[in-house]
């Protein structure tokens, strides 16, 4: 299980988007800086790589032109000095671009650096050349079509008025260079994601340690005045002989509530212990306490199955119900009703707890956003109540979501817990 952090300690409810909190603004600024940094790297990498590609492509075209001219000279020149012929061959063979020469009819005359196991010469034309090669004209036509799309041809004019067209494609190195910036950007993006995740994790861990320490110290400091209040309350009862006084009883309930709150703070950062409890009784006990501390214009109703059981941590589960009831009260405003209905899905052995209010409702687009930290309509508050509630429901191996809502009519939140009651299938 995850440990509770500072944002799980403070609760505030709201149905609609509210103001952005300072820690969220800081987080957004950090993300924006990382995004700008990544964008600068990406643009610089693409611009520089594009510059290299253009220059290399220009150099390769020059090589293709030299190769074309040397090939033309070899195939058309008369007998000349053997040393000059050797020089021309050396120049041609030093240029290793994949290339094809065609005539005016687009018939392939010569090729260079293509698949050495294939030939475009028909068997029988030159058996000494083709006997160990695979005659595959379709391969050469496919390569020619690709070269035509890659670059405009180099045209050579012969003395007899014919024209040759030289087609070529990028070298393997240039092809890799074109892909390189995207590989580089992918690696940079991966690095930024890892770096952001690591730094964010470290920052959150440090925050958690600080705030867990503060909450435990706050719980320790609350212990002394709470104990004193209990003592003073007993003295008042004895002095005024008011053992059954309702006002003092409610004061005692509030002091006990303070003890529960202090206990919550003292357990932050530790794994909660879950034990079996009757859901109806647990919810009823808190609703009875909450009802008399709320406006009498807001009515409360608890209904449903009274016998369902689930594993709960009472202080945390009370906190869940408290946040949802306060959320409903804030949504209602002045006058309305809050209903809690407990039901069961026997087939899945799940318990449904539906908390409905007659408040202002939630737009459907915000059904998920209401559980995000900082989401609130209240001007004074942190907007962390529902985020905290979702975390505590997960501690109980459950789920919470907005079941339904309609603007101006109300909202229903649903909690799903695993039932502790097991059923055996009956045979007919």
Automatic annotation (TrEMBL):
Q: Read off the InterPro entries from this record.
A: HATPase_C_sf, HATPase_dom, His_kinase_dom, HisK_dim/P_dom, Sig_transdc_His_kin-like_C
* CDD domains, A to Z: HisKA
Query: Which parts of the sequence belong to the Histidine kinase domain?
Result: 217-421
Q: Which domain of life is it from?
A: Bacteria
Residues spanning the membrane: 32-53, 179-199
Query: What keyword terms does UniProt attach to this protein?
Result: ATP-binding, Kinase, Membrane, Nucleotide-binding, Phosphoprotein, Transferase, Transmembrane, Transmembrane helix, Two-component regulatory system
Q: What is the E.C. number?
A: 2.7.13.3
Q: Which GO terms describe its molecular function?
A: protein histidine kinase activity
The protein's enzyme class: transferase
PROSITE patterns given for it?
HIS_KIN
Reactions mediated catalytically: ATP + protein L-histidine = ADP + protein N-phospho-L-histidine
Q: PANTHER family of this UniProt entry?
A: C4-DICARBOXYLATE TRANSPORT SENSOR PROTEIN DCTB, SENSOR HISTIDINE KINASE
Name of the protein: histidine kinase
Q: Which organism is it from?
A: Sphingobacterium zeae
């Amino acid at each position: 299980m995850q440990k509770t952090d500072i944002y799980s300690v403070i609760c505030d409810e709201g149905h609609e988007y509210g103001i952005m909190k300072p820690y969220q603004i800081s987080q957004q600024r950090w993300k924006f800086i990382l995004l700008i940094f990544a964008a600068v790297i990406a643009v610089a990498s693409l611009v520089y790589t594009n510059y290299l590609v253009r220059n290399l492509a220009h150099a390769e075209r020059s090589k293709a032109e030299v190769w074309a001219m040397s090939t033309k000279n070899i195939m058309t020149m008369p007998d000349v000095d053997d040393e000059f012929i050797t020089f021309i061959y050396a120049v041609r063979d030093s240029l290793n671009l994949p290339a094809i020469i065609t005539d005016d009819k687009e018939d392939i005359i010569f090729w260079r650096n293509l698949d050495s196991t294939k030939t475009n010469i028909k068997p029988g034309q030159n058996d000494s050349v083709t006997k160990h090669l695979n005659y595959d004209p379709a391969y050469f036509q496919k390569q020619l079509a690709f070269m035509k799309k890659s670059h405009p041809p180099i045209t050579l004019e012969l003395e007899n008025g014919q024209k040759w067209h030289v087609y070529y494609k990028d070298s393997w190195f240039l092809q890799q260079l074109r892909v390189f910036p995207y590989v580089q950007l992918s690696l940079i993006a991966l690095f930024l994601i890892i770096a952001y995740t690591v730094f964010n994790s470290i920052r959150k861990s440090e925050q958690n340690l600080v705030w867990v320490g503060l909450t435990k110290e706050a719980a320790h400091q609350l212990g002394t005045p709470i104990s004193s209040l209990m003592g003073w309350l007993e003295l008042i009862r004895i002095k005024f002989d008011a053992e059954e006084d309702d006002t003092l009883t409610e004061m005692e309930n509030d002091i006990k509530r303070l003890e529960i709150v202090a206990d919550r703070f003292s357990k932050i950062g530790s794994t909660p212990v879950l034990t079996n409890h009757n859901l109806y009784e647990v919810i009823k006990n808190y609703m009875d306490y909450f009802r008399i501390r709320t406006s009498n214009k807001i009515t409360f109703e608890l209904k449903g199955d009274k016998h369902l059981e689930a594993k709960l941590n009472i202080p945390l589960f009370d906190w869940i119900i408290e946040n949802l009831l306060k959320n409903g009260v804030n949504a209602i405003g002045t006058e309305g009703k809050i209903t809690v209905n407990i039901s069961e899905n026997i087939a899945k052995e799940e318990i449904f707890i539906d908390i409905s209010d007659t408040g202002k409702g939630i737009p459907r687009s915000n059904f998920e956003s209401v559980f995000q930290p900082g989401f609130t309509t209240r001007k004074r508050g942190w907007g962390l109540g529902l985020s905290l509630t979702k975390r505590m429901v997960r501690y109980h191996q459950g789920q919470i979501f907005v079941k339904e809502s309609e603007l101006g009519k109300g909202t229903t939140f649903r909690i799903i817990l695993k039932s502790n009651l097991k059923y055996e299938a009956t045979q007919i």
